[in-house]
Amino acid sequence: MDYYYSFNRYLKDTHQTTHRIWRIPLSTGFPCPNRHDGKTGCSFCTEISYKPRYLRDTNLPIADQLQLGMEKFGKIYKTDFFYGYFQDNTSTFGPIDELVAQYKTALEHPKVLGLMISTRPDYVTEKILQAIEELANQYSHKDIWIELGLQTTYDKTLERINRGHNYQQFCDAVSLIKRITNFKVGVHTILGLPGETTKMMESGYIRLCSENQIDGIKFRILEIFPDTDMINDYQDHPEDFYLFSLEEYVDLVCNILEQMSPEIVVMRFANWRSLKNLKDHKKNSKEDIIHSINLEFKRRHTYQGYFYQEKNK
After folding, report:
1. Through-space distance between the first and last CA atoms of the chain, rounded to whole angstroms
2. Which value, in Å, is the radius of gyration of the alpha carbons in the chain?
3. Cα 198 from Cα 279, distance rounded (Å)
4. Which percentage of the chain shows pLDDT scores above 70?
């Protein structure tokens, strides 16, 4: 039994294939506007946390990035099927013509089945969406996602971590995407942000999914890196940071998924680096988390959408 709607299942159903499909991280070469023109950026952010190792200290054209990624991940995961994933920085920030040209390079590759464009809610405009929509119409057989970095629904937390936008801006961005495009919307979130209890986290996710027309969600455990404002916050206020055990993390994620629509794709449960922030991290891997979530659902006799379906009968 599938206890949750995995991204792997979504990809296989969408493309009617049994082959594995992998995301190739790509970079537009443009900076994040929250770390530009004197802005200090999100308090948790560092290049280590978002930029793949094979792209560091490079400024390769998109075609070369794709080739390098396909060679690397194709060999590791034994696949010839990929999504172009514009992951680095804010991938809708920059001259629109140049951005669209890069998106097109990725889309026109015969091994690329879709595109994922990661960005901030405050840099989703009607103009950029219309430009991407026009491009997507030329490749209507390919799947397009806009991935929005939200992290949390709590404005107080967003201000504390210096996100530079609020929750309402996220809601407005989702509404705009759904109003003028057929793109799917993914959301990047972080569990364990300062000042948030597990009850707050659970309530925040339920609010996020009930108030917005989202198609996919990524969970990430907070990572605290050296030389960031976040580590200073942690050193000054360690009591504000919740450190999960594996059991506590699994329990919280299952609580959230039970109340979430079964049609929302679970794109990730944890980033591999963030596992070190579990109390018992030395014993765990991403596979351990997935296995533990399946076991917990089996024990509960529930699954993603169990209570959502009850409420929406």
Report:
1. 22
2. 19
3. 15
4. 91
